[in-house]
Specification:
binds nickel (II) ion, alpha/beta, eight-stranded parallel beta sheet, single chain, TIM Barrel
Length: about 260
């Protein structure tokens, strides 16, 4: 069954039918979901979701666009929640120079601080990086992220840089973007990266795959991603599903 490693079911776009949608996952071959906190209020919402649904696990952290709301009090909350039996990662954390909502120095400071928490709590990290290729890799290498481990979610950089992340033992989160016609670079990355380093994700409610591009995304769209990865790798869809599930278990060791 499918292991969905990155979704935001606390988003208000799911307010109308969240319960119904999540309760339909099992019958649609979705075994596990990691709900990833992004804004500060997403931390508490993630805790509620993982306590309500047996198959939902959580990642706690603050997205680079939101670090203006981050302070030591919130860091204490994050740290406390890391020891929750269903918290499997610190995330999503990283750098976003595309929206550029917070100055780079501030983004880098909180990226490092949250990496430190992951290291202390022995949890992997879920990295968000957009238009910040050189700084993200630089900060992670300097901060010895290879000792922490994790996944670069919605990977959007080059094959050459993928090699650097592979050398650090990082996984690559692959979602709807891989189905886009203009995603030539990402298709090359998926062809290059070993199956053992790929994870399935959606970033729901964002980034729905073709043929639902532009609509609200959900984990139910993952089969379109699976089918494109299978085509690129020349393997069966079943193999993509099984291998990525094994990979997710290897990285997120608290999932039973
Ligand atoms: Ni996300």
């Amino acid at each position: 069954m499918i292991f969905e490693t990155h979704a935001h079911y606390d988003d208000e776009k799911f307010d109308e039918d969240r319960d119904q949608l999540l309760n339909s996952m099992k019958e649609n071959n979705i075994e596990y979901i990691i709900n990833v906190a992004a804004a500060v209020k997403g931390i508490k919402a993630t805790k509620e979701l993982m306590e309500k649904y047996p198959f939902v696990y959580g990642a706690v952290g603050v997205h680079p666009d939101e670090v203006g709301d981050l302070d030591e009090e919130v860091m204490t909350q994050i740290r406390a929640l890391c020891s929750h039996e269903k918290t499997v990662a610190v995330g999503e954390i990283g750098l976003d120079y595309y929206w550029d909502k917070e100055n780079h120095k501030n983004q880098i400071y909180w990226f490092k601080r949250q990496m430190d928490v992951a290291r202390e709590e022995k949890l992997p990290i879920i990295v968000h990086s957009r238009d910040a290729a050189a700084d993200t890799l630089g900060v992670m290498q300097e901060h010895h992220a290879e000792e922490i481990g994790g996944v670069v979610h919605c990977y959007s950089y080059s094959v050459e840089m993928a090699r650097d992340y592979l050398n650090m033992g990082f996984y690559f989160g692959i979602g709807g973007v891989v189905t886009f016609n203009n995603a030539k670079k990402l298709k090359e990355v998926v062809s290059y990266v070993p199956m053992e380093s790929l994870l399935l994700e959606t970033d729901s409610p964002y980034l729905a795959p073709v043929p639902n591009r532009g609509k609200r995304n959900s984990s139910l769209n993952i089969p379109y991603v699976v089918s494109e990865i299978a085509r690129l790798k020349g393997v069966s869809e079943e193999e993509v599903i099984e291998q990525t599930n094994r990979n997710a278990h290897k990285l997120f060791t608290k999932v039973s």
